[in-house]
Specification:
Layout (H helix, E strand, L loop, with lengths): L1 E5 L6 H12 L2 E4 H14 L7 H9 L3 E5 L5 E5 L2 E2 L7 H11 L2 H15 L4 E5 L2 H5 L5 E6 L2 H14 L6 H17 L12 E4 L5 H12 L1
Parallel strand pairs: 1-6, 1-7, 2-6, 7-8
Antiparallel strand pairs: 3-4, 4-5
The chain binds 2'-deoxycytidine-5'-monophosphate (DC).
The site of 2'-deoxycytidine-5'-monophosphate has 14 residues, from helix 2, helix 4 and helix 8.
Length: 217
């Protein structure tokens, strides 16, 4: 069984997806982490962000492994190296949407996501899971929140990670990524027609998870 969760940056998708997967005993697949891992590789190799051909080449040779740990954390392995923390850096966040907008990059990563999904019951979160990656997912959710609330949540998240960014910078980054993610030509961020829309602005994490479990069961 596949559960697809899409929505804009900072809406809380990965938080609820992880909890949901744990409660259901499903595998959690963070597809954003895969685009981030590729972006890390692009920057590590000093590939200019506008060199689409080089980025596509790197994508075609990439090996990504996502491990669900027993404590609920996720380990992201890139070509055998643990990049779980590195992919959350501001420099990755800044460029990830430019990497993710490339059609050929998406072809490679979508194929990988489908292979992961075929391993068993999964919760996947991203931008195009219900529309493109698994259009016949058993349940689809579109998780949203007001722009102000999303900025607040992302700011708190980064603080916990020890990253010193201002709320203004976070707001700028979210607006920039949402714009690129929802206006790109290949599989832009869209709510699938059969997805359940949840506005989480005034809901706690527990309330969102309970709502989703209600729809699933
Ligand atoms: O969920 P996140 O913020 O970690 O995702 C990072 C970026 O990756 C996001 O800005 C857009 C891109 N992405 C995508 O294009 N498609 C997905 N399925 C997941 C993420």
């Amino acid at each position: 069984m596949i559960i697809a969760i899409d929505g804009p940056a900072g809406a809380g998708k990965s938080t609820v997806a992880k909890i949901l997967a744990q409660k259901l005993g499903f595998l959690y697949i963070d597809t954003g982490a895969m685009y981030r891992a590729l972006t890390w590789k692009v920057l590590e190799n000093n590939v200019p962000i506008n060199d689409a051909q080089k980025i596509i080449q790197l994508a075609q040779g990439i090996k990504i492994d996502l491990r669900n740990n027993s404590d609920g954390s996720l380990t992201v392995m890139l070509d055998g190296k643990d990049v779980s923390l590195a992919i959350r850096q501001a420099r990755i966040t800044q460029f990830v949407s430019d990497v993710a907008k490339l059609k050929e990059v998406r072809q490679v990563l979508v194929q990988m996501q489908r292979e992961f999904g075929q391993k068993g019951d999964c919760v996947l979160d991203g931008r195009d899971i219900g529309t493109v990656v698994f259009p016949s997912a058993a349940k689809k959710f579109f998780i949203d929140a007001s722009a102000a609330e999303r900025v607040k949540r992302r700011f708190e998240e980064l603080k916990v990670l020890g990253q010193s960014v201002s709320e203004n910078e976070v707001a700028g980054d979210l607006a920039n990524r949402d714009k690129i993610d929802s206006t790109r030509e290949t599989s832009p961020l869209r709510q699938a027609p059969d997805a359940i829309y949840i506005d989480t602005t005034d809901l706690s994490i527990e309330q969102v998870v309970a709502k989703m479990l209600g729809f699933i069961r």
